[in-house]
Automatic annotation (TrEMBL):
Protein name: Molecule interacting with CasL protein 1
EC number per UniProt: 1.14.13.225, 1.6.3.1
Reactions listed under catalytic activity: L-methionyl-[F-actin] + NADPH + O2 + H(+) = L-methionyl-(R)-S-oxide-[F-actin] + NADP(+) + H2O; NADPH + O2 + H(+) = H2O2 + NADP(+)
Residue ranges of the TM segments: none
Species the sequence originates in: Pygocentrus nattereri (Red-bellied piranha)
Residues of the LIM zinc-binding domain: 632-694
Keyword Oxidoreductase listed: yes
Length: 732
């Protein structure tokens, strides 16, 4: 008789069923690995789980052209499919042309911050090979970012909610930097982007004379595989302190403003959930609250913000006198760097100050407040000065060596440093990422490099003025095409011929000015046998060279014979104090740092010595006006000019309304004009080539603003500031 076997016997003997069972088991393991990858909460976990997933699915993560499609094919998982749908919808946008525009473009992105990673997403969708370098090995920044409506929609459409379930739930409009980095890191990895952490970028290596190599990066460790990667596009998202050679930076300087950030552990208890956030309270709008805080706690603030995310995050602007009275700052100083130097700050007093402010502002409703820890395991509290902010004069350039061109673009803080009370960092950072991707798209499509640069600079003119109110409200239509985001944008406001002139004059003029400055310093310190000025960096370490300059021009202010060459701190401090007291020149760094730093930043020394040169060679005192009631005459109309209403460019002060093109009368903006020193006239970009004002060899001369300080005016600041105290605090 025939007897049915048990199911286990049938399965063990049936090859088809064995194969199906094996595939199901492998599929389940892939699903588990994908879930682990999505849920990863550290940079290291993301990379490890992604590597395991690729290994399990037998995928080559360096096969950037086909990686994403192969991943979709092999990972048949409903949770993943929801994410694929969002990515596919984005990738199907006509701007990307199915990845064809940049199929032969190789990009290196420096920095795995939010802006660098967001740029990498767009470059990958355009079909480019993208490699990201990040010197850190972990994402540890707890500080919380304010998001504009379009950024929330943008991230949701990219699947942010799949990676971080609490993303902008309900009315929330913020996210911690760490969580945003994790979301974008996971996304770029799925798109086939290579991300290398723990790699220090040291500079660009030019193509070899033999033509065997293209542009490469000098990295540490030198043996890292990224050292051999050749690229034709370099995007710097390395933060405000790193700007590639060739770019000029403008400084926007205001009155001293001290910010404090503090992060506390969020246990997500019911009691913590009930505490209301503070989206922004300023003294002018709630004087009673700030007066009570001052009276009861001795804490004097201009404003305070409280957000809940991974941590309880507080950020506030504190008054200096309050910090001195509470013992947070040990000794007063007119130098902001010295004032907030680590040695001059009592960390325990700072922690108490931040703790008391957080408790009072939440009516003591946050139970058992404990500081969250930063990347070095210490309480995550920081005090910083945002008196000065920096902005690149232009956003892109092209370098060519041995027949090989390199397109360089800036995004993030190295393009425009954000003003944190306005929450502009990520909003403008993402706009710049889209603008940069559009530039690379044109580059990949073969548009001439001058046209690529001209269009990018035309768009960049708008970035610093963008607000939620003046950008397009049609968020679903946003793409990398600038016309979808900036109403009435003129992509040809800057012409290719203007780009050529600017770049050429910038490089040659900058070099000439540095040579002239060095010669001037050598000439006027030659009288002192103890001083030998050989460069614009290390020669100034001892402080004697700076003191010699001062004695040469103002012998009554200093006595070189009394100075000890080995006491560099004293010498530098003496020179810094004299130049600040007598001429209003702020020190570039503390005297201690100047004496002990392994490498002295040449750019900082050049900027500082340029100011010294100006005060000793110009007949008019360079001491900046600080009295809000003082006045002078407008450069253009020669009428009375008060500090509160003045603008500044090329060392000229004027009514903002008088800053117009001398030919067509168009109102000029900072960075959007041409100045001719011979005639003292200003022109708009369109009328920047009057024949009668040509210099040597017919080359139009472009004035350099890199050493200038732009003075903010009321009309420029009112659209930017959230309250009047911040407005007046920012004024020079």
């Amino acid at each position: 008789t025939y007897k049915l076997s048990t199911s286990s016997t049938v399965n063990s003997c049936n090859p088809y069923l064995l194969s199906m069972a094996g595939k199901q088991e492998l599929g389940n393991q892939a699903h588990a690995l994908f879930d682990r990858f999505v849920a990863s909460q550290t940079c290291k976990e993301v990379q490890q789980n992604f590597a395991e997933l690729c290994h399990h699915l037998q995928l080559d993560s360096q096969d950037y052209h086909h990686f994403y499609n192969k991943l979709k094919e092999k990972l048949n998982y409903w949770k993943a499919k929801e994410l694929w749908q969002k990515i596919d919808k984005r990738a199907s946008h006509p701007d990307y042309e199915q990845g064809k525009p940049c199929a032969k473009t190789k990009c290196l992105v420096l920095g795995a911050g939010p802006c660098g990673l967001r740029t990498a997403v767009e470059l990958a969708l355009l079909g480019a090979q993208v490699v990201v370098l990040e010197k850190r090995t972990s994402f540890s920044r707890n500080n919380v970012l304010h998001l504009w409506p379009y950024t929330i929609r943008d991230l949701r459409n990219l699947g942010a909610k799949k990676f971080y379930g609490r993303f902008c739930s309900g009315s929330l409009d913020h996210i911690s930097i760490r969580q945003l980095q994790l979301i974008l890191l996971k996304l770029v990895l799925l798109l086939g982007v290579e991300v290398h952490t723990g790699v220090n970028f040291k500079g660009l290596l030019e193509p070899q004379a033999s033509g065997s190599t293209g542009w490469r990066a000098l990295v540490h460790p030198e043996s890292h595989p990224a050292a051999s990667y050749q690229f034709d596009v370099f995007i710097s998202a390395g933060g405000g302190r790193f700007v590639p050679d060739g770019f000029k930076i403008k400084e926007l300087r205001g009155k001293l403003a001290i910010g404090i950030t503090a992060n506390f552990t969020n246990r997500r208890t019911a009691a913590e959930t009930q505490v209301a956030e503070i989206s922004g309270v300023a003294r002018i709008y709630n004087q009673k609250f700030f007066q009570q805080l001052h009276t009861e706690m001795g804490i004097d603030l201009e404003n305070i913000v409280y957000y809940k995310d991974d941590t309880h995050y507080f950020v506030m602007t504190a008054k200096k006198n309050s910090l001195l009275k509470k013992g947070v700052i040990k000794q007063d100083s007119s130098d902001a760097e010295q004032l907030l130097a680590q040695a001059n700050v009592d960390q325990e007093a700072l922690l108490q100050y931040a703790y008391d402010a957080a408790q009072f502002s939440t009516s003591h409703k946050l139970p058992d407040l404990e500081f969250a820890l930063n990347h070095v395991g210490k309480p995550d509290v920081a005090m910083f000065d945002f008196t000065c902010m920096h902005r690149a004069e232009y956003a892109s350039l092209v370098r060519e060596r041995r027949g090989k061109k390199l397109l360089i673009g800036l995004v993030g803080d190295c393009l425009v440093e954000p003003f944190w009370p306005l929450g502009t960092g990520i909003a403008r950072g993402f706009l710049a990422a889209f603008d940069t991707a559009w530039m690379v798209r044109n580059w990949g499509k073969g548009v001439t490099h001058l046209q690529v640069l001209a269009e990018r600079e035309s768009v960049y003119q708008l970035l610093s003025q963008t607000t939620p109110e003046n950008t397009s409200k049609n968020y679903p239509a946003y793409s990398i095409d600038p016309s979808t985001r900036y109403p009435n944008v003129n992509l040809s406001s800057i012409k290719p011929k203007q780009v050529r002139r600017k770049r050429r004059s910038t490089e040659t003029d900058s070099l000439r000015r540095m040579v002239d400055l060095l010669s001037w310093c050598q000439k006027h310190t030659a009288w002192c046998e103890r001083v030998q000025v050989k460069d614009l960096s290390q020669s100034w370490r001892s402080g004697l060279a700076l003191c010699a300059l001062i004695q040469h021009f103002r012998p009554k202010l200093i006595d070189m014979s009394s100075l000890d060459e080995n006491d560099a701190v004293h010498n530098n401090q003496l020179a810094f104090d004299i130049l600040q007291r007598e001429f209003g020149i702020e020190p570039i760094m503390s005297a201690g740092d100047m004496a002990s730093s392994k490498e002295i930043d040449q750019l900082s020394v050049v900027l500082y010595l340029t100011q010294v040169h100006n005060v000793f060679t110009e007949p008019v005192s360079a001491v900046p006006a600080t009295d809000l009631g003082s006045s002078e005459l407008c450069y253009f109309c020669h009428q009375q000019l008060y500090v509160l209403e003045r603008g500044s460019a090329e060392g000229k002060f004027f009514h903002r309304s008088c800053f117009i093109c001398q030919q067509c009368g168009t109102t000029l903006r900072q960075g959007g004009y041409t100045f001719y020193p011979d005639t003292g006239r200003f022109y708009c970009e369109e009328h920047s080539e009057p024949v009668e004002e040509k210099g040597e060899e017919g080359e139009l001369q472009q004035a350099d603003l890199s050493t200038g300080v732009q003075v903010w005016t009321i009309s420029e600041l009112i659209p930017l500031c959230i309250n009047v105290p911040i407005l007046f605090n920012m004024l020079h």
